[in-house]
Specification:
By secondary structure, the chain is mainly alpha-helical. Helices cover 69% and strands 0% of the residues. The two termini are 50 Å apart.
């Protein structure tokens, strides 16, 4: 590991590029070769074992059966090639097949990710309505008993005391999502435009990826549902997008809540299934691409192939699998550093007669890196606008198109959905307050200035639940003193 880090430091400084580029390429191939085959072995073992233990019949559904069959076909083809002399054409063909299946499963997952976005939205809507059916006087008494100053003080500590930036960022997003929104459409759009303006001078692909996050939060990413043959929820969601929630009685509320819980649980199961399938597809594809860069068949590779043959025949050799435990961590650690340096490697200038192109296929290495990353459903095709640098006019046009879509959505949905989308969207944008003092003003005004007592209680309850993880509050509403800490 020390040698790898030193090599990467030298490359970042442009030292001994001619010597270190081949060393980088060799390290990358060896590391990804073992990482891919080990990941594939554990992924396939888990998937086949779960399928064998399936008691709910999820694997009998048409879509699950179809995509499991496609994935299994790729795995069996890989095992057949492992027993034969290397053929660039055969491995290239299998990599192409795997890449195609990757794209098809990605299209399926885009539908389910949209469903998750909608479920998040309507779960939020119902969360804000849940106390509407309780006695209003009792709710008012509970809220009057809260020490607002202390509550905001603890909320501020919850946000600003952590030293770790990533922890603060997650908490900020979660808190902003829960605080009621009182903002005009024009102010929101201005905040969006100002945020997107920071992408002037950046690559278009960076802006597109951020806009994808914003569209998801806004439920604007509506994919083609025809790629799935079951579990289609689009028509039901369209009913909810146009429902008059102000007239919803308790029975109707409980009916929708029950279905939301059922569909949310189902989406988790479906997502887990496709994540496992995509992992295997990606790992098969990565191995096929790596094969042309190495001729060695190590003991680890041989052991993995043996386990994979057993697994595809319904045999689960636990003892053999245990023999591989602890090996993958080594390669994953090295892979982290090699992958992090890959974009920098691309920009290395020639050193003597050496260049990146003469030592390695950068685009193929980048694809292998993507296939073995945590971003399982990344688009492997060259994305439109990749490498294009944005000017102010381009960014303003992108902002206008997005805000126009939002404006149309807001004109079509009830106010409960509109305010929910605004909350979820604000959580993905930079905070509109700059420091703790401004946050206190924002939270006090929007939270305790909320005139809808049921919504106010729902927001306070959700925030108390967040802080309960740090033992700041006990959220049992039977004792109002619990919120007086």
């Amino acid at each position: 590991m020390k040698e790898v880090k030193k090599m990467l430091r030298d490359l970042s400084r442009g030292v001994n590029v001619k010597k270190n580029l081949p060393r980088y390429a060799d390290a990358f191939v060896d590391t990804c070769y073992h990482e891919a085959v080990l990941k594939l072995t554990f992924s396939a073992y888990l998937l086949y074992e779960q399928k064998a233990d399936d008691e709910e019949g999820m694997w009998d559904s048409p879509d699950a059966a179809k995509w499991f069959g496609e994935t299994e076909s790729l795995l069996r083809s890989l095992l057949e090639l492992a027993d034969k002399p290397y053929s660039a054409e055969a491995y290239g063909g299998l990599a192409e097949r795997a890449g195609k299946v990757h794209g098809q499963i990605r299209a399926v997952m885009e539908v389910y990710m949209y469903y998750v976005d909608c479920l998040n939205c309507f779960n939020y809507v119902l969360d804000r309505l849940k106390f509407r059916y309780e006695d209003e006087a009792e709710q008012q008494r509970q809220m009057n008993d809260i020490n607002e100053e202390n509550f905001i003080l603890h909320l501020t500590r919850f946000l600003f005391e952590p030293d770790v930036t990533s922890v603060r960022a997650v908490r900020m997003r979660d808190v902003i999502r829960e605080i009621p929104v009182y903002m005009t459409k024009n102010k929101l759009f201005s905040h969006i435009t100002q945020t997107l303006s920071t992408y002037v001078g950046s690559e278009r692909i960076s802006l597109e990826r951020y806009l994808y996050i914003l569209r998801s939060a806004s439920t604007l990413s509506r994919p083609d549902e025809s790629v799935i043959s079951e579990n289609r929820l689009g028509p039901w969601f369209q009913q909810l997008f146009h429902m008059d929630f102000s007239t919803l009685d308790l029975d109707g509320f409980m009916e929708i809540l029950g279905r939301l819980e059922e569909e949310t649980n189902k989406m988790h199961e479906i997502a887990d299934l496709y994540i496992q399938l995509q992992e295997i597809v990606n790992e098969v594809c990565a191995l096929c691409l790596i094969e042309r860069h190495t001729e060695k068949k190590t003991d680890v590779y041989a052991d993995c192939m043996e386990i994979l043959r057993d697994v595809t025949e319904g045999i689960f050799p636990e003892i053999k699998l245990e023999g591989l435990e602890g090996k993958i961590e080594h390669y994953v650690e090295i892979s982290y550093y090699l992958n992090a340096s890959l974009p920098e490697i691309k920009n290395l200038g020639p050193d003597g007669d050496s260049s990146v192109a003469s030592v390695m296929d950068y685009n193929e290495f980048a694809m292998i890196s993507d296939l073995l990353s945590d971003s399982l459903f990344i688009d492997l095709q060259k994305e439109e606008g990749e490498g294009e640098i944005l000017d102010e006019k381009m960014v303003n046009e992108a902002a206008r198109q997005f805000t126009d879509q939002l404006s149309q959505l807001f004109a079509e949905v009830p106010k409960e959905v509109k305010r929910t989308v605004m909350s979820l969207l604000l959580a993905e944008l930079p905070p509109i307050f700059q420091n703790a003092e401004e946050f206190v003003t924002y939270a006090t005004t929007n939270l305790f200035g909320c005139q809808n007592i049921a919504e106010q209680k729902a927001a306070v309850s959700s925030l108390a639940h967040l802080m309960a993880e740090e033992e700041l509050f006990d959220v049992d509403w039977s004792d109002p003193d619990d919120l007086l800490v």
